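Look over both lines:
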Amino acid sequence: MDTISQAPDEPVLTSDMLAKDPLDQFAAWMADVVAVPLPEPTAMVLATVSASGQPRARTVLLKHYDPGGFVFYTNRTSRKATDMAEVPRASLLFPWYPMNRQVIVEGTVSALSTEESEPYFRSRPRGSQLGAWASRQSSVVGSRAELDDRYAELERRWPAGTDVPMPGFWGGYRVIPHVMEFWQGRVNRMHDRFRYRRNDGEWVIERLAP
């Protein structure tokens, strides 16, 4: 058990405060973020690397998490999807700065099937469904007007009251965690950091230097 000193009202994180499973710990912190509430609590930075070794990062939205991992959705023609097809590993960062907290996830990536992806696509607003068809994400376009014209054409193709099918080039991805880190900011940069890592199927918890 940790013995620590702290300033009055300073948030702390100790080993005896942690859940045994990092997904349970993540759920507790996510509940805190939602309760505050923070804007876009499910926003996360997704970092990938290409086959040539080029690292890339962008912000996406977490749509689901469970013991199997963290799920998000995107266009499969995007650079992130290409990276994950070439190198099926990724890192996620949840930057909850107003609470002086962040969570880092490292793991492998698997693509969800059409059957697994369709329920979420059906739940999206109609405009977002059409937008998925209109944008071949990360491809070069000549102008904004080109995108707007493509969207208008799709509105005519699938008018209000008709179902918009899920594009074959769109779907979900799951990041299966092997390492998770929980970071609580402290004064003087003496932050509390704990890492969960898989070891023979069990989670080992370690305190890291800030």
About this structure: The longest strand covers residues 170-184. The radius of gyration is 20 Å. Residues 124 and 136 are 18 Å apart (CA to CA). Residues 22-35 form the longest helix (14 residues).
